[in-house]
Amino acid sequence: MRIGLYPGTFDPITLGHLDIIRRASALVDRLVIGIAINRDKGPLFSLEERVAMVEAQCAGLATQCGTEIVAHPFENLLIDCARDVGAQIIIRGLRAVADFEYEYQMVGMNRAMDDTVETVFLMAEARHQAIASKLVKEIARLGGDISAFVPGGVREALLAKFS
Questions:
Q1: Would you say residue 103 lies in a domain?
Q2: Contact at 8 Å (CB) between 149 and 133?
Q3: Catalytic one of 23, 72, 95, 111
Q4: What is the pLDDT of residues 99-158, one digit of tens each?
Q5: What is the Cα–Cα distance from 12 to 145, expressed in whole angstroms?
Q6: Which domain holds residue 33?
Q7: What are phi and psi of 103, to 5 degrees?
Q8: Within a domain: residue 147?
Q9: Active-site residue 147, yes or no?
């Protein structure tokens, strides 16, 4: 069974994330969405809320793609999380060249720790390249329309946070 790990904070999950998840699902039999517990980033949503959003948004995708998709919170090193879930592939989404510089360093470090786990980069579709959770939260906080960036349920959760 080919297992992939797509890690992130998903605070919140966006249409860009869902695009990568949909496309990654075609590459693996089981896709683990690694939801990082990153206290340094100070997430808006609790871990439980982020897991629930990921599960709600991925349920239909799993059925549609015929791939098992599961949410898995983690707080350890990414490479250790990959080992924990049995992933042979780490999937990373890229939006811009600036993303690549950071990701390139991460791949080197991960390979130094475990060269049996490959990293696969998927470019975000053009219409999703500007979407970043940080920007979506800022737009929502300032009362802007975020419906083009997040699914409806996530939009409602963001509006509730900022009301």
A1: yes
A2: no
A3: 95
A4: 788 898 999 999 999 999 999 999 888 888 889 999 999 999 999 999 999 999 999 999
A5: 15
A6: 3-126
A7: -65, -35
A8: no
A9: no
